[in-house]
Amino acid sequence: MFLISTNDLMKILTVFTRRIGLLFFSFIFLFFGIVIFSLFYLIVFKDIFGFVMTIAVFLVLINRPKDRLFFLTMYVVVAVLEIIGSVYEVWSWPDTAFGVFPILKSHNPPSGISLFYFLLDIGCFVIYTQFNSKTWKRFKNIRRQLKSQII
């Protein structure tokens, strides 16, 4: 007969809640940090284009729940790198969206520039799965088998 002591159960619950709590706190911190950053750029720099792209980022993340924490972290890293690159004049962005849409005012860099990196990442993934469908199906089967063993 297999028995779990109260002490062991408490250890398991403590580890579980710490991990979930850390993930939840990280998600909330990143989400609200990005919202504040994007609103700051919108209000101070009139970055309408960046704000629209940030909204698009959140819309993309609605359909990718497993990847949210990764993509939110990626958003912050890309924003920091874009700001550093713009400050050191490595590159610059036009005053309007792509220099074409005068309604969408932009800052250098736009706050939501991470959207392009997200779309590139997702696009590469889709292309990979299309060209390597046999490998991708095998990977999904292995993952499904592992999940069934855990449960």
Question: How many beta-strand runs?
Answer: 2
What's the structural domain tally? 1
- Assembly form of the protein: single chain
What structural category characterises the helix and strand content?
mainly alpha
SSE order, as H and E? HHHEEHH
Main β-sheet description:
2 strands, antiparallel
Inertia-based shape: flat
- Report helical residue fraction: over 70%
What order do the strands of the largest sheet run in, or round the barrel if closed? 1-2
Q: What Rg is obtained from the alpha carbons, in whole angstroms? A: 21 Å
Proportion of β residues? under 5%
Counting DSSP H or I runs of 4 or more residues, the number of helices is: 5
Which stretches are poorly predicted, pLDDT < 50 over at least 5 residues? none
| Mean pLDDT value | 87
* Distance linking N and C termini: 20 Å
Spell out the key features of this protein.
two-stranded antiparallel ribbon, mainly alpha, 2 strands, 5 helices, about 150 residues
Question: What features would you describe in this structure?
Answer:
The chain contains 5 helices and 2 strands; from the N terminus they run αααββαα. By secondary structure, it is mainly alpha-helical. The protein has one domain. It has a two-stranded antiparallel sheet. α1 (6-45) runs antiparallel to α2 (48-62), α1 (6-45) packs parallel to α3 (68-87) and α3 (68-87) crosses α4 (114-131). The longest helix has 40 residues, at 6-45. It is flat, with a radius of gyration of 21 Å.
